[in-house]
Specification:
Radius of gyration: 18 Å
CATH architecture: 3-Layer(aba) Sandwich
Strand order of the largest sheet: 2-1-3-4-5
Order of helices and strands: EHEHEHEHEH
Distance between the termini: 18 Å
Number of helices: 5
Bound molecules: flavin mononucleotide
Shape: globular
CATH topology: Rossmann fold
């Protein structure tokens, strides 16, 4: 299951996730890849309804019904999970964070503070951003990474840095970016980033089939 937490359908995050999907699918017909675009869904974050913690009826899948319900149910049965998001103000997008509240709160036990998902699985956390590997403001998936690592398994990271924010820098007020420097970085890294995403997809699919 691939969860796209970015708004743009054909830009950096979507391209990286698409390559991941291609890599996974390249392993064989047994691999089924499904991509969900969060911005295409009408859903809320955790409603604090506490339905997942009712005595005798506790559930580690969210009980609140909206467009996210079938996605959360599918993740519960998936064999692998990929989350992708652009970095906005140092964090994943609000849409991704909202999704993660619904995914992770039912995992959390207030009896003993354990975190238990219906099933453990390989996870990749992907980010794209303007920042550079050694100079960026990304907090990534923040505190949600702890929940993911405990409930699903230690995630692998895949980041694309210094991405193109627009196709044509001349059209916008973006004077702090040098298009030439961006282009040079992109020429040196973007194809490799896509290849890394493809390879990560292939690796995850191979590990699932093993
Ligand atoms: C609202 C907004 C906030 C952003 N904040 C950051 C930021 O804090 N750090 C950063 O490195 N890039 C930031 N960016 C740049 C994006 O993370 C970057 O362009 C990303 O690759 C966009 O992904 P997309 O092409 O999939 O939309 C921001 C972009 C937007 C639109």
């Amino acid at each position: 299951m691939i969860i796209d937490g970015g708004p743009r359908k054909n830009f950096n995050t979507a391209s990286m996730l698409q390559k991941f999907a291609e890599g996974a699918a390249s392993v064989g017909n047994e691999i089924e890849v499904k991509t969900i675009r969060l911005y295409g869904l009408d859903y809320k974050g955790c409603m604090s309804c506490m339905a997942c913690k009712i005595k005798g009826k506790a559930s580690n899948v969210c009980k609140f019904k909206d467009a996210l319900t079938p996605v959360l149910e599918e993740i519960a049965e998936a064999d692998g999970l990929v989350l992708g998001s652009p970095i906005y103000f140092g964090d994943v997008t609000g849409q991704m964070r909202t999704f993660l509240e619904r995914l992770a709160f039912p995992w959390l036990s207030y009896n003993d503070y354990s975190l238990t998902a219906p099933k453990r699985m390989p996870v990749v956390l992907m980010e794209t951003m303007n920042g550079l590997p050694d100079r960026n403001n990304s907090q990534g998936y923040g505190s949600m990474e702890y929940c993911i690592a405990n409930a699903l398994g230690q995630p692998e990271h895949l980041n694309a840095y210094n991405t193109y924010q627009v196709k044509n820098y001349d059209r916008f007020e973006l004077a702090s970016f040098s298009e030439e420097a961006k282009r040079q970085y992109r020429d040196e890294h973007w194809e490799q980033d896509l290849q890394k995403a493809f390879d990560a997809g292939r690796r995850m699919a191979e590990s699932i089939l093993k």
